[in-house]
Amino acid sequence: MPGGLANGWATVPDKPQITIEVERRLANFKLDVQFQLKSGLTAFFGRSGAGKTSLINLIAGLDQPDHGHISIGSQILYDSDQNIHLAPEKRRIGYVFQDGRLFPHLSVHNNLIYARRFMDQKLNPETYDNIVQLLDIPGLLERRPGTLSGGEKQRVAIGRALLADPQLLIMDEPLAALDGGRKAEILPFLENLRDQLTTPILYVSHTMEEVIRLADNLVVMDGGRAVAHGDVETVMSRLDLSPLTGRYEAGAVFQVHIEEHDRAYRLTRLQLAGQTLWVPGIDRPIGTNLRIRIRARDVSISRQKPQATSILNVFAATVREIVRDQGPHCEILLDIGRPLIARITRKSVDELDLHAGQKVYASVKAAAIDRRSLGLNPTN
Amino acid sequence: MFTLSPFELEAIVLSLQVAGLALVGCLPLGLMTAWVLARYDFYGKFLLNGFVHLPLVVPPVVIGYVLLTLFGKRGPIGQWLWQTFEISIAFSWQGAAVAAAVMAFPLMVRSIRMSLEAIDGGLEQAARTLGASPAWVFVTITLPLILPGILTGSILAFARSLGEFGATITFVSNIPGETQTLPLALYSLTQAPDGESGAYRLVLISVAIALTALITSEALARRIGKRLGHRA
């Protein structure tokens, strides 16, 4: 978009530090979370019941912690020692709810500008136009929320939150109520937002696909605690988290870029840690940065370099760690210059006599890398 | 041509006056009571709820008698009103309005409370995160959303007030020009030896007023419903 989003929040001079340290006893578990939020999009990932929504309600001020401290830069939103509990309307935190929560008695336009009378400065008409364009909702402005589709409602809800000029944008599973097609319709808008806003975004999700596509940072929640926190690549390479991120979906995440397109075979060659990875053709220009997830179940291991194999991608690797449990599978952390995770049977581990430090070959089937494992890199 | 006699006109105007005053008194109090019942949990809530609904279940005469005991010149409230402000509402049209308001109150509270409870609290939370204080949330979100309930409650209360008989005749008696509303006038005519044709005319007038009120409220409710995005 030309000129970007021309308003204060598009050119925040220095990004304020967001600190969250809260304890809250809830009906069936205790929420106990400490971390600092980095800029960009941070995903809160965890199973339902892990405490994600409870936590963001504390941040937004819709619920009050028993104890702790929440601040954005020098502004304290909550502090139990100083007896500070700022009302939600004073926090300037945009909140996109799972169910949209558009005001049914107001038109889309009036929903969008709802926050204007509570703001210090006047609403910049250019900002309004930019956001309406960014979310592709100019045709909906006169409609009532009751006549919108689920995807349209969510786009309006995002616009409404942005037009309140938030210093932090929270999205609580904004895609959860949508079916597959509608999800695919919204994801590009979210990617755009992430790339064009300087406002930090907190994105709650229980879908790994969304995390891979959207997140810079990842907080894994379990039983009311943040069990891991860091950039997506680092957190996803931790074997101990795979029960939480979902064994079926678990896999290492890489930053890659497009080197070459093979038009004849409809393949794309990616550059990954100095090595080459062939994947089914990606419709992006050469040089594009991507994020790619190689699922652990799509990686196989052999002691000798495979000969005459159908598999296009073979990497020399070193075994770093083997996690065995009682089930049929083992998870193996490999080093190919970057961490790569393989999930193979316990029987194979014993037959190959695998142990840490061993030199092996890791094979990745090109066909196993699908659209769902790709995300446009936010640093593009 | 249907022309109204002075007697009929007096009864109609008085009835509208009584019902109007009853409505004006009922509305803010009913809104507050409905709010408390819908939004707060407190010890003895069921008692308040029962008390509010009492006029629906006890004979109107009982309510009229209780009002007479409280507001009569020697009743605790009536005595205080007389000594402090030199006001007495017993046997006056304002008294008739009080009787009508008490009888209509539960209908008002019920319909506002139901629409309050039907509101998705999430909408009010969303408004808070957008910067609206609780007072603004009430004005810009809650009030417009419960408007249909307020409207229904008002029509019911107004109609109930127009028809009020038992509590009125017990509390403020049947004084032509002062407390003789339509139902009371109708009652007087049925007691008179040659009142039959006059009684029929009052029946027609009562039906016409009630129908007008109902149709107006229906039309208003439809317009508000459209604004709220319901498909009618």
Please characterize this protein's 3D structure:
With 380 residues, chain A is an alpha+beta fold. Chain A has helices at 52-60, 108-112, 125-134, 150-162, 180-196, 208-214, 232-236, 242-245, 346-352, and strands at 18-25, 30-37, 41-45, 67-72, 75-79, 84-85, 93-96, 168-172, 201-205, 217-222, 225-231, 251-262, 267-272, 275-280, 289-295, 299-302, 313-324, 329-335, 339-345, 359-364, 374-376. Helix content of chain A is 20%, strand content 34%. In chain A, strands 7-8-9-3-10-11 form a six-stranded mixed beta sheet, with helices on both faces. A five-stranded antiparallel beta sheet of chain A has the order 2-1-4-5-6, covered by helices on one side. In chain A, α4 (150-162) runs parallel beside α5. Residues 1-13 of chain A have low confidence and may be disordered. Chain B is an all-alpha fold. Chain B has a single domain (6-227), classed as Orthogonal Bundle (MetI-like fold), CATH 1.10.3720.10. In chain B, α6 packs antiparallel against α7. The longest helix of chain B has 34 residues, at 6-39. The mean pLDDT of chain B is 89. Classes of the chains: A alpha+beta (380), B mainly alpha (232). The interface between A and B is medium-sized, with 29 and 22 residues.
Describe the secondary-structure layout.
The complex is a heterodimer of chains A (about 375) and B (about 230).
Chain A (H helix, E strand, L loop, with lengths): L17 E8 L4 E8 L3 E5 L6 H9 L6 E6 L2 E5 L4 E2 L7 E4 L11 H5 L12 H10 L15 H13 L5 E5 L7 H17 L4 E5 L2 H7 L2 E6 L2 E7 H5 L5 H4 L5 E12 L4 E6 L2 E6 L8 E7 L3 E4 L10 E12 L4 E7 L3 E7 H7 L6 E6 L9 E3 L4
Parallel strand pairs in A: 3-9, 3-10, 7-8, 8-9
Antiparallel strand pairs in A: 1-2, 1-4, 4-5, 5-6, 10-11, 12-13, 12-15, 13-14, 15-21, 16-20, 17-18, 17-20, 18-19
Chain B lengths: L5 H34 L5 H13 L2 H12 L4 H10 L7 H26 L2 H9 L4 H30 L2 H7 L9 H10 L4 H32 L5
Helix pairs in contact in B: 1-5, 1-7, 2-5, 3-8, 5-7, 5-8, 6-7, 7-10, 9-10
